[in-house]
Amino acid sequence: MRVLVLGGGAIGRAIAESLRGEFEVAVIEKDEIRAKALEESGFHVINGDFSYTATLLKAGVDKAELVIITTMNVDVIRKTVYVIRTNNKDVPIVTVLPDDVGLDDLVSQINEEYEAEVKVDYAVSPRNALKDALIRTVERIGERKNANLLVRKLKELRNQTDSLLIVMHDNPDPDAIASATALSVIAQTLGFKTQIVYGGEIAHHENRAFVNLLGIDLRKVSRGSYELKRYPFIALVDCQPNGNLTTLDQSDYKKIKILIDHHQILQHLQELIPEDAFLDIRPDVHSSAAILAEYLRMLNISLSPLMATALFYGIYIDTKKFSKLSHIDLKAIEFLAGKVDYELLDKIEHPDISTETAEILAKAIMNRRIYKNVVVSNVGFITNRDAIAESADFLLRLEGITTVLVFGIVDDRIEISARTRDVRVNIGAVLREAFGDIGSGGGHSQSGGARIPLGIFKLAKDKGSLLRLAEEAITEKFLDALKVKEG
Predict the structure, then answer these.
(1) What is the pLDDT at residue 355?
(2) Quick check: 283 and 318 in contact, CB under 8 A?
(3) Which terminus of the chain is less hemmed in, N or C, by CB atoms within 10 Å?
(4) Contact 448, 441 (CB under 8 A)
(5) Could you give the domains of the chain?
(6) For the residues of 321-346, what is the DSSP string, one character each?
(7) Average pLDDT, stretch 365-377?
(8) H-type alpha helices, 339-424
């Protein structure tokens, strides 16, 4: 992709350094000394004022595929955008904007000043960019803190013994089993010998298949048995000392040193277990497996395909087939998706997710792009067209999302599915407006589909470029029909 970076200052140089090698980058810089320094560093540099038509044409703005404006001078930005649009109406423009200027304000000023209809595709505010970066950092600190506190407690226990008993509720489901197995992996990295136990039955055929196919070592124990009494410390996973955990006697509670759960906290829990126990109880998370996946991610513990598959399936079951997802659940899915053994997942006799559907769902999650409350996702080249619709149904369940479009390339056409829960939107009409002139589109008020023939593009050898072009065109047309601005 041909990228023009307008301005060779600190921001422009940093962007150019990050992009070169992967993209064809040219930098326009007015200052001769700075331009020479950039050139000596190996950059393709055009020395001149980038708000002038001659300079932009010399840099090849008419053939550019992306233009990045790095100045904070709004007057210069307005003039530059107008000149760019005069010579290239379609190239995406990304600009930095001062905190007190919005993208809509900028476009209005340009249109009023030059009496022309122009568009700016993306704008970045330093304040908002800094805020987003800080929020991500704070979230990561919180994630790392939880993992570090768990490790600290395990090391403290390891100084006293090398044995740890991990107890699940009486009739463990995949979430409990996967979570207990993940905690066992973490403890074993610190030198523990672990045993996972339960007191009831694993009755469901899918749960039995889950245990057998993944080779998980579980042991059924009875209340008051030697197996329970011989361990000095207990970790509870996906449960608390209440009605669904009958394995432990009251006298066993004092040995509970770790408790990880996503259910509502038991009212008198602090009175039942030692004060120094490590507790991580998060009722806002919908699966314990997601919490354990976070630990593994923060501790950089290598995941086997078996472990990743177990956690992924545990999240899937406890979130009711991904119908309710918290931020933590979603991050866990993203972390695990590329590590899952989908053939093994298929063998667990899951009736709703085939191997290919699971892979496509993972792609839909990882490739999603969010524009306000709208998600657009590209699942690439596939053979199962039905999985596109299933992915759209899934993404619509994400918090804060009201409208979804998922597309993939099947044989010689682009297949599209869209969903909405916004009562103001008729998604069938939106799809007709967006894609009716280049293919076919329609549906009902809340769901619909579209199909676009690839035509001569099906002969393209560079599949990556074809996907990028398709994504840009589909996103622009869909958001335009929705009256949503990409910025």
Answers:
(1) 73
(2) no
(3) N
(4) yes
(5) 2-124 (3.40.50.720), 140-348 (3.90.1640.10), 355-482 (3.10.310.30)
(6) TTTS--HHHHHHHHHHHTT--HHHHH
(7) 93
(8) 342-347, 355-366, 386-395
User: Considering all CA atoms of the chain, what is the largest pairwise distance in Å, rounded to the nearest integer?
Assistant: 87
d(CA 284, CA 440): 42
| Angle between helices 355-366 and 327-337 in degrees, nearest 10 | 120
pLDDT at 172 over 80: yes
| C-beta separation of 184 from 196 below 8 A | yes
The arithmetic mean of pLDDT across residues 239-261, rounded, is 90
Mean pLDDT across the stretch 197-218? 83
Q: Is the pLDDT of residue 353 over 70?
A: no
pTM for the complete prediction? 0.58
Starting at the earlier edge strand, list the strands of the sheet with 440-443: 368-371, 374-381, 403-410, 413-420, 447-453, 440-443
Interatomic CA distance for residues 459 and 437, integer angstroms: 22
Structure tokens that stand for 283 in this block: 């009722």
**CA geometry: angle 367, 261, 237, nearest 5 deg:** 105
pLDDT of residue 334: 93
Q: What angle do CA 357, 361, 362 make, to 5 degrees?
A: 120
Mean pLDDT of the chain: 90
Cα Rg of the chain, angstroms: 28
- How many other C-beta atoms lie within 10 A of the C-beta of residue 183? 28
| pLDDT the model gives residue 419 | 94
Q: Strand pairing partners for 219?
A: 197
Per DSSP, helices labelled H in 66-125 are 74-87, 103-114
State the pLDDT at residue 351: 46
More confident residue, 191 or 384: 191
